[in-house]
Amino acid sequence: MIVSVSPSGARRALFTLMFAMIFLAMAAPAWAKVAAKDVIKNYADIAHAGYEDSLLTAQKLQAAIDAFLAKPDDKTLQAARGAWLAARVPYQQTEVFRFGNPVVDDWEGKVNAWPLDEGLIDYVADDYGTESDENELYVANVIANTSLKVGGQKIEIPKITKSLLTNVLHEAGEIEANVATGYHAVEFMLWGQDLNGTDAGAGNRPATDFDPKNCTNGNCERRAEYLRVVTDLLIDDLKWITAQWAPDGPARKELMDSPDTIGLTRIFTGLGSLSYGELAGERMKLGLLIHDPEEEHDCFSDNTHNSHYYNQVGMQNVYLGRYKRVDGSTVSGPSVSDLVKAKSPDVDKAMQAALDNTLADMAAMVKRAETVEAYDQMIGEGNKEGNAVIQAAIDALLEQTKAIERAVATLELKAIEFEGSDSLDDPDKVKG
């Protein structure tokens, strides 16, 4: 049977079809049309924004340190400390880009290595000890000494230079505790040792340690030189990593040129490894098992609670595909959440809930740190309430890791090996 349609009827039918298509396009969830390549590009955009913010806040830190060294007093020291704390906020959110991206993992030790043997750099308290069987530079004190022995060879160090810190001291003898550069070296210079154990209080270095006219603890000019040089190095390193993720940067290009499955695998490797082995294990469970205040990330400033919290914020940023910049603007776009949702809305919902639950437990830890006791007190032996707050955050991270594993399976990615930790996988080895 042939149906005759008038011209006006044809036009009505065409318009009806067009409106139906528009309606369906509007009704279709955005995630149904997301391409993996777009997700990976947005991931790179967030990495670049995070590292650029880390650089910008580090440059503000550098300005505050310059002002402090020009006029070393309590006011300028507190301003420099405040700038260091502010600089940690964006940087800690970038740690989710480690593990999966070799360029970041190979670089990270320059800027965020911890814990460090303070005696390598400067004076320490008497109970620190005078030697270590494991580290010949345990009390090298390069600020007080113009020569030292490394591997049996005497080295003259008349000035504190970038080359000295990076090529001679940092991880000298392949000992990870020989940390001479990065955020924590700057932190030690600004706060000094935290000698309070699990009692209240952070490091309390006097401003006069940097005042040649009213010098305390000797070598004030050389100490100021160390602080200036190590801060300059931090800026150099952050400039380098920011350029790596710029629109024409080599790290971004390598990632974008790789197969989509490689990019997605790297994203989830960073999420799972930070969630499990690094944060839940090495940064949290280890300190809780041995109740050692030295096993806290920002141990001189008592800022560890914030560092952990912003690590979690960083993981949420990457999964949801959005990042709030320090200037208040937002970088956002297609995300792995969209891809998971397209395959299984239930798995995505569970993943988002796990991220929210962990963030809530981290926020509870931050609140306790700001109103009751510092993180190093929370992990103290016999502190049941404090221990419980830390353990709750660890448990949430473990559940979050399981949700990450389900998301990986949903996207049918090959099995991903997340970073492990003896603290979680073999706690008896740690206690022993």
Strand order of the largest sheet: 1-2
Return the string of H and E elements. Answer: HHHHEEHHHHHHEEHHHHHH
Q: Give the helix tally.
A: 16
Globular, elongated, flat, extended or rod-shaped: what is the shape? globular
Low-confidence stretches: 1-31
Annotation, overall tally of beta strands:
4
The main pleated sheet reads as: 2 strands, antiparallel
Q: How would you state the average pLDDT, rounded?
A: 91
State the distance separating the first and last CA atoms. 88 Å
| CA radius of gyration | 25 Å
Task: Kindly name the structural category.
Answer: mainly alpha
Beta-strand content bin: under 5%
Helix content: 55-70%
Structure description:
The chain has 432 residues and is mainly alpha-helical. The chain has 16 helices and 4 strands. The strands form 2 sheets. It has a two-stranded antiparallel sheet with strand order 1-2. A two-stranded antiparallel sheet has the order 3-4. A hairpin with a 2-residue loop joins strand 1 and strand 2 (153-156). The model is unreliable at 1-31 (pLDDT under 50).
How are the secondary structure elements laid out?
Layout: H1 7-27, H2 36-70, H3 74-93, H4 102-112, E1 147-150, E2 153-156, H5 162-169, H6 183-191, H7 220-244, H8 250-257, H9 260-290, H10 304-320, E3 322-324, E4 330-332, H11 336-343, H12 345-371, H13 375-378, H14 384-410, H15 422-425, H16 427-431
Antiparallel strand pairs: 1-2, 3-4
Helix pairs in contact: 2-3, 2-7, 2-9, 3-6, 3-10, 4-7, 6-7, 9-10, 9-14, 10-12, 11-12, 12-14
Main traits of this protein?
globular, mainly alpha, two-stranded antiparallel sheet
